[in-house]
Amino acid sequence: MRIGELAERAGTSTRTLRYYETQGLVRPRRSANGYRVYDEAELRVVHEIRALLAVGFGLDDIRPFVACLRAGHSSGDVCPDSVAVLRRKLAEVDAYLDRPGAVRRQLHDQLTQAIAHREETCFRKRDVPR
Questions:
Q1: What is the reported pTM?
Q2: Which of 19, 97, 107, 129 gives a 20 to 30 Å CA spacing to 63?
């Protein structure tokens, strides 16, 4: 299939496919007239790339998944390098999710201290004779 058909079937643009090619992720053959020609395996690679990008992976993170597919595996996430990327990404997400809890605890503590200080200050002002 040519680049326009691949773009349509993959739900992306020809410009994006050319970019993936410059990044070494997509490998077209060239016809005699210089047109890019893709086989079904490249469609699977593009679907994998787009799925991983959609959940926040960068192109460098995606390389092991593409290599895994190119090695003949039915899924890009079964190879050791892909699993390592998944573990690292999961740790990043966990750290990201932990951050709001830490911020909430800090804000709660600060609010608690502010209320205690305010009540203490107001209590002392009431006890002062006029």
A1: 0.77
A2: 97
Phi, psi (rounded to 5 degrees) for 36: -75, 135
DSSP β-bridge partners for residue 30: 36
Q: Which sign does the torsion angle of CA 79, 85, 87, 93 carry? A: negative
Neighbours of 116 (CB within 10 A): 10
Average pLDDT, integer, range 63-70: 97
Cα separation, 99 vs 62, whole angstroms: 26
- Do 87 and 96 form a contact (C-beta atoms < 8 A)? no
Please report which residue ranges of the chain form alpha helices under DSSP H: 3-10, 14-22, 40-54, 59-70, 80-127
- Among 39, 79, 76, 38, residue whose Cα is nearest residue 57: 76
The amino acid at 101: G
